[in-house]
Write a structure and sequence with these properties.
Blueprint lengths: L15 H10 L6 H24 L4 H47 L1 H14 L4 H12 L2 H13 L8 H17 L3 H4 L6 H20 L7 H30 L2
Length: about 250
């Protein structure tokens, strides 16, 4: 049975007009990855600080000071790192484009031979191979894009470094603030337990969202993230408790 636009197993319509409109827009940039990674790191690191300080049985004031300092310092650091990483990808793509443009100017026949061998490896032969080489090399922009993607494996990236960094920072602040909330609102002796429960829920939710990137079931991804996050927090708590005994705080 052929797929239709209303088929629930099909992510988008295959009507010719819908296909043309979708392809005209080009690939859509997604910042979900940046948000999820920022959220996980924010929840893990801030909760690790809270758990470690709580394990050392220090005051709520110290927990809040260290937690907030970590929230903004680490959040900015991660956002800056993500910004630089995305920008480096874009800069590298431009460098490869310039390299291929120079090669085409200096050695066009050598570059045509590269195209021929690339498509021959894909199964093209005879007149089909000759025609494919002619079509690709007849348009410089298309020629460069094919060479960059096929020779270097560097697909074009339209992601904005600024948006990627902003998404990471926002997610870090939002998710990383959760472990601090019980201490801000004076949960008293139950503050750490409340932080554990609330942060565990954040880990579970982020993990469920992360399943969009894979074929794993949402609950599998959620449990995996939950276990990783809580393990990091438990380790930090244990280190804080040990240091308390060693230094006699």
């Amino acid at each position: 049975m052929s797929a239709t636009p209303r088929d629930p197993d099909i992510e988008h319509s295959h009507d010719p007009q819908d296909i043309a409109a979708r392809l005209e827009k080009g690939p859509q940039s997604s910042y979900l990855r940046d948000w999820v990674l920022g959220g996980i790191d924010g929840a893990v690191t801030t909760f690790a600080v809270v758990a470690g300080v709580a394990g050392a049985e220090l005051s709520t004031t110290i927990i809040l000071i260290l937690g907030v300092a970590n929230l903004f310092a680490d959040g900015f650091s991660m956002a800056a790192g993500n910004y630089s990483g995305v920008k480096a990808e874009r800069d590298d793509y431009r460098r490869l484009r310039e390299t291929e443009l120079r090669h085409i100017d200096l050695s066009p026949e050598g570059e045509r031979e590269e195209i021929r061998q690339i498509f021959a490896a894909k199964g093209f032969e005879g007149e089909d191979l000759t025609r494919a080489v002619e079509i690709i090399t007849s348009h410089q922009e298309r020629w460069i894009e094919v060479m960059v993607e096929e020779e270097y494996g560097a697909p074009k990236s339209n992601r904005s470094p600024l948006r990627a960094g902003a998404a990471t920072f926002a997610a870090f602040l939002i998710c990383g603030a959760v472990p601090l909330l019980p201490f801000v609102f004076g949960a008293g002796s139950n503050a750490l337990l409340s932080a554990v429960i609330m942060t565990g829920a954040v880990f579970f939710g982020i993990g469920a969202m992360k399943s969009k990137w894979s074929t794993a079931r949402w609950w599998t991804s959620a449990l995996e993230t939950f276990v990783i996050g809580m393990t990091a927090a438990g380790f930090a708590y244990a280190v804080g408790a040990l240091l308390k005994g060693w230094v006699g705080v």
